[in-house]
Amino acid sequence: MLAPGKKKTHRTYLWAYATTPYTELKAVVYDFSEGRGGHHARDFLGEWRGKLVCDDYGGYRQSFAGVTEIGCMAHARCKFVDLHVTEKSQIAEQAIDLIGQLYQIEREVKSLTAEERQRLRDTRARPIADTLYRWMLAHREKVPEGSAMAKAMDYSLKRWAALTRYLDDGRLPIDNNRIENLIRPRHRGAATGCSPAHCAAASIMSLIQSTKLNRHDPYAYLKDVMTRLPTQKNRAIDELLPHNWKPAIPDNA
After folding, report:
1. What does the alpha-carbon distance between residue 251 and residue 248 come to, in Å, rounded to a whole number?
2. How far apart (Å, rounded) are the C-alpha atoms in residues 60 and 64?
3. Residues 76-104 pLDDT 10s
4. pTM (predicted TM-score)
5. Residue 29 CA: distances (Å) to CA of 6, 19, 204
């Protein structure tokens, strides 16, 4: 962000909060902040209580009072992928293979109902996860303390309960790749700065991306909403949200 009156920029942050791929409600909300402290997430979530799919960023930890942490298996896998790429580690390759089996099941259950998804996870994925856990415990004793492999295993072992909670709820994904994909193409470059301007941009981005998630054309959506807003009753304003929106019917139709 360009600081007014100064000839330099400083880093600002865009947070993203989205529904999971398996929920009927398709929405993402972006939130701008000038820092990355955990209080930004806590302030945004407020009194919300539920299941939060996230990585191991320390700023989230104080948010877990009344919030259930769901770990990201993709982040756990990346630790082993990095080792396999840089060191050609056969141990890392074994971990990647077991985690890959979990992902193969997720590809197969993607189109099922939450109940069907959970049943197949119980019968097929849970035994693989148990095997992976025992495998890591056994190999952790063999690798040097402080080594890259030890750190990769410790990441998963210390967060194992969170990483495997998705197995207990068919509505949950195995990772938070969805949010990674939703935030990656957003916010590039620098803007002259004041927080209100960035907050407004984040709100517009939230509408546009949520419109895409609901398979609407963003231009058609925004044009219709801007036309209807001046006469839309406050009690019916929710009708214009992307997940509720239906194009206005012309008077001569």
Report:
1. 9
2. 7
3. 999 999 999 998 989 999 999 999 999 99
4. 0.84
5. 31, 9, 10
CA of 164: how far to CAs of 3, 105, 151, 249, in Å? 44, 14, 19, 47
Per-residue pLDDT tens over the stretch 170-225 = 999 999 999 888 887 554 444 444 456 667 888 899 999 999 999 999 999 999 99
Q: Within 13 Å of residue 4, how many CA atoms lie on the same side as its CB?
A: 4
Closest CA to 17 of 111, 34, 43: 43
**In angstroms, rounded to a whole number, what is the distance separating the alpha carbons of residues 9 and 243?**
36
Q: In sequence order, which residues have a C-beta less than 8 Å from that of residue 103 and are 6 or more positions away? A: 73, 174
- Answer yes or no: are the C-beta atoms of 33 and 13 closer than 8 Å: yes
Which tokens go with 158? 């210390």
* Closest C-alpha among 171, 176, 163 to residue 126: 163
Q: Can you tell me the mean pLDDT for 139-161? A: 94
Report the percent of the chain where pLDDT is more than 90.
64
| CA gyration radius, the chain | 22
- Residue 70's nearest CA partner among 142, 161, 170, 6 is 161
